Amino acid sequence: MLAHALNIDLADLSDAREVEAIDRWICARGDTTPFHRPAWIGAVAKGCRQQALMLVARRAGDICGVLPLNLIASRLFGRALVSSGFAVDGGIVADDSATVEALAGQCWQLAERHRCPTAELRGGRLPEDGWTRKGGAYLNFARPLEADDEAQLLAVPRKHRAELRKGLSFDLDIEIGRDRRLLDIHYRLYAENVHRLGTPVFPKAMFEAVLAAFGEDADILLVSKDGAPLTTIFTLYHGQSCMPYWQGSALAARAFRSNEVAYFHLMGHARARGYSIFDFGRSKVGTGPAAWKKSWGWEGEPLVYAARAAPGREARDINPLSPQYQRKVELWKKLPLPLASLLGPHIARGLG
């Protein structure tokens, strides 16, 4: 019996029926993330003025693999084809190794066609032929939620549990929703947060586009005290996982332990919605954020990515912790916040 031929084409992302079929295939699997969905690459394209592309592999008309891509173009950081843009995951989803290699090959042909000297695969099934794997830089923190709030509290190591209990004693106000007011508050606190870290803020249009594209699969949690916003978390939901993806915080957040309170309440909210995994997301090895996640009792799992560069070229490096960016990071921290918030989106939309 002859095997069916493998066909790979670019999806028509303007065709709602085709997009729905692709999304249904992705969401039915246990090896995907929100960053594989057409909603993500479409929101990135809309919010950051980049292009969304989706390679789809089929056998006998049935989907057997996908590769979501964003074409990133920037005067500062160059051109790259990325799976997925502005994400910590993405990459190839496929039923077998042959489809993995075929999708990777088509990805590189697309990169050459669009004059991209670099292609990046952030997770997923990684190809072998022509791609360089990179590991050891990032950890991902995900684990099952406990049965209830009390068990969740007791699962936190003693020292950090004391911090959490202290935050809970302040009787902070919690609000979860998807309205414009919450988005505006989140973006303001997020801009403050990344400015303190020395990195440019993403365009507000991207947050708006993600919230709109994901519908009930995204929301914003706000922690406040006497009407003053302290912490926000922009969360994505996919499969069995709750993924707090973007956090904003005011300077007063530390005194009230509102970050601890926010994540604890989000765990309860996720459990009530029927999710069983809490995915704290990615942090760089040896950094404060990685240590903070470990203090909750989460263990990091090493992430491995893959990249390919044109002959004679090196894969681009956009990691703000890289030595080449350290002086720029320190200078950015010194910019007045209004100026950084004005300039930041024009720079950040090219990071991908």
UniProtKB/TrEMBL annotation:
NCBIfam families: pepcterm_femAB. Signal peptide: none annotated. Residues 159-294 form the BioF2-like acetyltransferase domain. InterPro entries: Acyl_CoA_acyltransferase (IPR016181), BioF2-like_GNAT_dom (IPR038740), PEP-CTERM_FemAB-rel (IPR017469), PG_Glycine_Bridge_Synth (IPR050644). This is FemAB-related protein (PEP-CTERM system-associated).
